[in-house]
Specification:
The chain has about 325 residues and is an alpha+beta fold. The protein has helices at about 20-30, 45-55, 85-90, 100-110, 155-165, 180-185, 200-205, 225, 230-250, 265-270, 295-310; strands spanning about 1-5, 10-15, 35-40, 60, 70, 75-80, 95-100, 115-120, 130-135, 150-155, 170-175, 190-195, 205-215, 215-220, 250-260, 275-280, 285-295, 310-315. The chain has 4 domains: about 1-30, no CATH class; about 35-125 and about 215-250, Periplasmic binding protein-like II (D-Maltodextrin-Binding Protein, domain 2); about 130-215, D-Maltodextrin-Binding Protein, domain 2 (3-Layer(aba) Sandwich), CATH 3.40.190; about 250-315, Alpha-Beta Plaits (2-Layer Sandwich), CATH 3.30.70. It has a 5-stranded mixed sheet with strand order 6-3-7-14-8, with helices on both faces. Strand 4 and strand 5 (about 70) form a beta hairpin. It starts with a strand and ends in a 6-residue tail after the last strand.
């Protein structure tokens, strides 16, 4: 009997009579012609997400106008979508999973599985904020002052809920972009805008009145796909690698050699909660130390390690840390 096994675009003929056990194991571990359809956020998060995938060990490539990046994983199929609409397509099952902000999940009211939080944004590893902002010379100083006013934002539903919670009646209109310019030219009285540092708001002579909500990046999955054992395992593996890459961003590895007589002095320099691995060297009376520390800590203690007797000090970058 002849069994045909499809591998990507190729087919291989295996004789099950000759290799019954191998075929059985092979087909159990591999879902042929089934790929995980996964959405990457296009726009402000795109560059940092591509960099994160590369740090996690994936090679991505695409042309400037392509919405379908290639990835060196034949079990995955990628598509670029706006973060604003990602959760809707995941919920509908058009894609199995994707990366988007928790703000857009709430805004769309999407019923999806939140696989894991990915603590990164466009510029930093910190959550982003949606803030209520007005011109610096505006008389608005609290939500109540927005009564009868006009606001512009992309986050319409959450903004309406915010105003309702403060018992404020105001007009909220969807902004297609250039939101900060609308309040500066008097088209609207206030805006609700996304910010990480507040620098853009200050540059446009705006001040923050209140924070509407904070948001972190989420890896999400379609509920049906999550019930599929193969897809769930694939999504969980992806989450582990991406979280490991994020964990490594602010860390570095540190290696050094030290003699036995200076060992205690060197250990005293290192943070108490980060005890290193200590291994004897081939040279009697010498040890190799290796540990992982915050990059900011390492740059401040290297001179002290040298003074305490550390030698051959090496600082190296990390791609992933899996806890």
């Amino acid at each position: 009997m002849l069994t045909l096994v499809s591998i990507g675009r190729k087919s291989a003929a295996l004789t099950s009579d000759a290799y019954p056990d191998k075929i059985s194991v092979f087909t159990q571990n591999r879902r042929f012609d089934v790929r995980l359809k996964f959405g990457l956020p296009k726009g402000s998060l795109q560059e940092s997400t591509v960099h994160l995938f590369k740090q996690a060990g994936f090679l991505l490539s695409s042309t400037e106008r392509s919405y379908f990046p290639s990835i060196d994983d034949e079990e995955m199929e990628l598509v670029l979508l706006r973060a604003q609409e990602m959760s809707r397509y995941v919920e509908a099952g058009a894609i199995d999973g994707g990366i988007t902000g928790n703000d857009w999940i709430m805004e769309n009211g999407s019923d999806v599985v939140k696989v894991t939080e990915l603590a990164y944004s466009k510029q930093s590893l910190e959550p982003v904020r949606w803030v209520l902002a007005v011109p610096v010379d505006s008389k608005v100083s609290r939500p109540k002052d927005l009564e009868g006013k006009r606001l512009a934002t992309e986050l319409v539903n959450i903004t309406k809920s915010y105003l309702k919670s403060h018992k404020v009646n105001a007009v909220v209109e969807f902004s297609w972009g250039a939101t900060e310019a609308k309040v500066g030219t008097g088209l609207v009285d206030a805006i609700v805008e996304l910010t990480e540092t507040g620098a853009s708001l200050r540059a446009n002579k705006l001040r923050i009145v209140d924070t509407i909500c904070t948001s972190t990046t989420q890896l999400i999955a379609n509920k049906v796909a999550w019930k599929d054992p193969w897809k769930k395992k694939k999504l969980e593996s992806l989450a582990t690698l991406l979280k490991g890459a994020i964990a490594a961003r602010s860390k570095v590895g540190l290696k050094l050699n030290v003699s036995k007589k200076n060992l205690k002095k060197v250990l005293d320099v290192l943070p108490a909660i980060k005890r290193p691995t200590v291994s004897p060297l081939s040279s009697p009376g010498w040890f190799a130390l290796e540990t992982v520390l915050d990059e900011k800590v390492v740059r401040s203690i290297i001179p002290d390690l040298k003074k305490a007797g550390g030698e051959g000090i090496i600082e190296y970058s990390l791609n992933k840390i899996i806890y």
